[in-house]
Write a structure and sequence with these properties.
Layout: H1 12-43, E1 51-53, H2 63-68, E2 91-93, H3 118-127, H4 134-144, H5 162-170, H6 177-188, H7 191-199, E3 203-207, H8 213-224, E4 232-238, H9 246-258, H10 267-280, E5 286-292, H11 302-312, E6 317-322, H12 334-340, E7 342-346, H13 373-382, H14 386-406, E8 425-426, H15 427-436, H16 443-455, E9 460-463, E10 469-472, H17 477-488
Parallel strand pairs: 3-6, 3-7, 4-5, 5-6
Antiparallel strand pairs: 1-2, 8-10, 9-10
Helix pairs in contact: 9-10, 11-12, 13-17, 14-17
Length: 490
């Protein structure tokens, strides 16, 4: 069945009447919508904005221009459905002041001084890095993140006697004893895991806060040795002992395991011979090495850690160690790390380092190696004459004056600055001063008194680059001020 469509011709007058009716209908709907918006805005206390028609901006075309383009543009008619359109009139809004009928309360905000507020000042400084791109922004950010270090030092701590120190150290056992006991019990439950890792050929390293000596001794003596073959030997080395040397450890291994001395003098050759000797007794010789504090002062050399890694690489040796300094792995390269074959365990015990610090003077921690302390200076100065004390007091005062004159721009770190040859005092100048103050009468007696201070490391007598004799005290400013206040200003 064919679909027939008939087009009915429409008169222009009829079409114009229909357009006029649609236009009136649209205008009525727009007016109704506008009235609704105005009514809602009046509820909020706002008045509507009036729009005025600007008849001067009508877009009218000249008749001649229309006639000139008539042969390009088809005349609108009913057939192509494009009725005539009137020119658009631009509407320009006329704004009036907004009137608010409901009262509005403003919050009072206190003023902030950006110069006094440290947080805003730091944020403003860090925001500057956003203006830099590429590598310049990276270095700018790193520079702005730098914070000034504290000027506090260990020398500012109050002086205590050794009896007081040990009494205070024992107080640590009274803090949280039940919690520490439960923590140790938890670590003991991991003994089987540690044994499994050793049997699989790994070495164990333990780190964390607190002494790990008792825990590791209990693991090796009461658990590990009983579960290894009967011919297994065990060696315990204390790295916190300043007299420990890898050569002593190698001699002990040869003596305990093979009942003879090392065949080679050099430690590298001794380790190589030891590896070959173990290969001859693959199933009959086994050894456990427990090394407390692999980061001890006596082992802080790269060649010593190379020897220890060679021992750890032997299959028949089970290597167990502890460390307290997290910077220790910086000694190890990839080859040494592969030889150690470590598995790391955190065994924080919170126990005091009573045994570990017994091999070093704990009261001199954080001070220079040459520092004799106020007690040592007291004993040295008490055995000298009043002129010698007066000489050393004047030397301290002139040394401090020399340092203060050289660090005008870095006054914050003054207490940490140490006397050196750059801040030294001329020998001849100080001698003339002492002669003028009637401290000494001749150069021979002057040098005799200075020799006492030099022998006790309380003063250095040397020559500068120009060959002139100079004097300086190799202590920090805090140490010098403490000696001056406690011993010489009485």
């Amino acid at each position: 069945m064919a679909l027939q469509v008939q087009f009915k011709s429409m008169d222009s007058s009829e079409y114009g009447d229909e357009l006029t009716d649609d236009k009136d209908l649209i205008e009525d709907e727009d007016k109704a919508l506008a009235d609704k918006i105005i009514a809602l805005s009046k509820k909020d206390g706002l008045e509507p904005m009036h729009l005025e028609r600007d008849d001067s901006a009508e877009d009218d075309l000249d008749e001649e221009q229309c006639n000139s383009f008539s042969h390009y543009l088809p005349s609108p008619n009913i057939r192509n459905g494009s009725p005539k359109r009137k020119g658009r009139k631009s509407l320009q809004p006329r704004f009036e002041d907004l009137k608010i009928t409901t009262p509005v309360k403003l919050l009072k905000v206190s003023s902030v001084d950006t110069e006094q507020d440290s947080l805003l000042r730091d944020d403003a400084a860090e925001s500057k890095s956003l203006f830099y791109d590429g590598y310049e922004g990276f270095f700018e950010q790193q520079k702005l993140k730098i914070r000034k270090s504290s000027t506090n030092s260990m020398t500012m701590a109050p002086q205590i006697s050794y009896d007081d120190f040990h009494r205070f150290n024992k107080l640590l056992d009274l803090f949280c004893p039940l919690q520490i006991h439960n923590l140790i019990a938890y670590y003991r439950q991991q003994y089987t895991q540690w044994l499994f890792e050793l049997e699989e050929g790994f070495s164990l390293v333990f780190y964390g806060v607190g002494s790990k000596r008792q825990l590791l001794l209990d693991f090796v003596r009461n658990f590990l040795v009983d579960r290894l073959p009967k011919n297994t030997k065990c060696i315990v080395a204390n790295g916190y002992n300043l007299e420990l040397h890898p050569r002593i450890l190698l001699k002990t291994i040869w003596k305990v395991v093979f009942n003879k001395g090392p065949p080679a003098w050099h430690m590298v050759d001794s380790v190589r011979e030891l590896k070959e000797e173990f290969n001859r007794y693959v199933d009959r010789k086994r050894l456990v090495i427990l090394l407390h504090n692999i980061d001890g002062e006596s082992l802080r050399q790269d060649k010593y850690h190379y020897i220890l890694s060679g021992l750890s690489s032997i299959a028949q040796i089970h290597f167990v160690c502890s460390m307290d300094n997290l910077n220790t792995p910086l000694f190890w390269n990839s080859s040494m790390m592969s030889s150690f074959n470590f598995i790391w365990h955190n065994v924080t015990t919170f126990k005091p380092y009573t045994t570990e610090i017994s091999f070093k003077d704990p009261l001199n921690i954080g001070k220079s190696n040459e520092f004799v302390g106020s007690q040592g200076a007291k004993y040295v100065l008490s055995s000298l004459t009043s002129n010698a004390k007066n000489l050393y007091r004047n030397l301290l005062i002139r040394q401090l004056e020399k340092i203060d004159s050289a660090i005008e721009q870095d006054a914050e770190n003054r207490g940490l600055i140490k006397g050196n040859i750059k801040m030294s005092i001329l020998f001849r100048e100080f001698y003339d001063f002492c002669v003028g103050e009637f401290i000494t009468s001749n150069e021979i007696s002057f040098r005799t008194v200075l020799r006492e201070f030099v022998e006790h490391k309380m003063c250095n007598l040397t020559r500068n680059t120009a060959g002139t004799e100079v004097l300086y005290i190799p202590f920090t400013v805090d140490e010098m001020e403490k000696i001056l206040e406690e011993e010489l200003l009485e």
